[in-house]
Design a protein that fits this description.
With 310 residues, this protein is an alpha/beta fold. 41% of the residues lie in helices and 21% in strands. The chain has 10 helices and 14 strands. The chain has helices at residues 12-23, 38-47, 50-53, 92-109, 122-133, 145-160, 199-210, 212-220, 227-241, 286-305, and strands at residues 4-8, 28-32, 59-62, 73-76, 114-117, 140-142, 167-168, 171-173, 179-181, 187-188, 191-192, 246-255, 261-272, 275-279. Helix 6 crosses helix 7 (199-210). The radius of gyration is 19 Å and the shape is globular. The model has no long low-confidence stretch (mean pLDDT 95). Bound molecules: adenosine-5-diphosphoribose. Adenosine-5-diphosphoribose is lined by residues 8-14, 33-35, 38, 77-79, 81-82, 95, 98, 101-102, 118-120, 223-224, 226, 229.
Length: 310
């Protein structure tokens, strides 16, 4: 039997994620949104691509949470995206209310599901989802590091003129300005980039990665990135659905790891059928630890300011 995935939010990220999951035949997909007609229309349109694309996943679009019953995985993309000039944090109050509502509806019908969060500001929305669901930390995971690392890999591949597939990148910390890229652990066919590029170039590529979301928003203007974000969340979904035990940078709730307590932040984790199966602690330099602490403090300060009933 196919696994079942619910994608909440049938906008750019949600619908593209549903498409990627279906085209990889990873699971049946329920696409749900508050907007009348959009999830049904996009769901049917996607299903009608199956005979040509040759996938067997069944896709249903709906506004009715009862159709999400017994999902193995719930992916939350519902919310409002950024417009030019807005930071991810400008979305907090609205998206916290949305995330809290949809998570409660979903977990009521799928108490054994794993939650994958995409809605921004990501690390804060993970906290909202954890609170709204009452789930243990293994089952609430945020997508940020995989996307940030993919952007870093892309820019490195353009700079070095080598296949992006050859590049393995590690990015820690919050999704946004306080992201902590790790050049020491970023390699091209095993060679650290610190041996291949001058520090100034690496610094410039890191800056571009950090501003990667804003770069897209400024180009598109009416919305934010969705191709790479949907690819990133699909990689995480696949690791969980297929119990791949893949090591990926994800936003998880730390309870003392890296000396950080009670906040969601991006660190390398092992993803498998159980969700977060292990948090991997790597040795950081004093400077890297300092940056990670700043990142955690930034997320914590927003969570403390949340005046939404979650
Ligand atoms: N329940 C279900 N769906 C909702 C709700 C709700 N309460 N509120 C809003 N939505 C839906 C909208 O109707 C819309 O279809 O969420 C969808 C969001 O889609 P887009 O506006 O296209 O935004 P998108 O680009 O998909 O980004 C969604 O992901 O990457 C993050 O920052 C981004 O927070 C944003 C989220």
């Amino acid at each position: 039997m196919y696994k079942k995935v619910t994608v909440i939010g049938a906008g750019n990220v949600g619908a593209t994620t549903a498409q990627r999951i279906a085209e990889k035949d990873l699971a049946d997909v329920v696409l749900i949104d508050i907007a009348e007609g959009i999830p049904q229309g996009k769901g049917l349109d996607l299903l009608e691509s199956a005979p040509i694309e040759g996938f067997h996943s069944r896709i249903q679009g709906t506004r009715d949470y009862d159709m999400t019953r017994d999902s193995d995985l719930v992916i939350v993309t519902a919310g409002i995206p950024r417009k030019p000039g807005m930071s991810r944090d400008d979305l907090i109050a609205t998206n916290a209310k949305i995330v809290s509502t949809v998570v409660k509806e979903a977990v009521l019908r799928s108490p054994d599901a794993i939650l994958l969060l995409v809605t921004n500001p990501l690390d804060v929305m993970c906290f909202v989802a954890k609170k709204a669901s009452g789930f243990p930390r293994e089952k609430v995971i945020g997508m940020a590091g995989v996307l940030d690392a993919a952007r870093f890999r892309t820019f490195l591949s353009m700079e070095l003129d080598v296949s992006a597939e050859n590049i393995s990148a590690l990015v820690l910390g919050g999704h946004g300005d306080s992201m902590v890229p790790m050049p020491r652990y970023t390699t091209v066919a095993g060679i650290p980039i610190t041996e291949l590029l001058p520090a100034k170039t690496i610094e410039a590529l890191i800056r571009r990665t950090r501003d990667g979301g804003a770069e897209i928003v400024n180009l598109i203007k009416t919305g934010s990135a969705f191709y790479a974000p949907s690819s990133a969340v699909t990689e995480m979904a696949e690791a969980i659905l297929k119990d791949q035990k893949k090591i990926l940078p994800c936003s998880v709730y730390l309870m003392g790891e890296y000396g950080i307590q009670g906040v969601f932040i991006g660190v390398p984790v092992k993803l498998g059928a159980g969700g977060v199966e292990k948090i991997i602690e790597i040795k950081l330099t004093d400077e890297e630890q300092r940056l990670l602490n700043i990142s955690a403090d930034a997320v914590r300060s927003i969570v403390l300011k949340l005046d939404v009933e979650v």
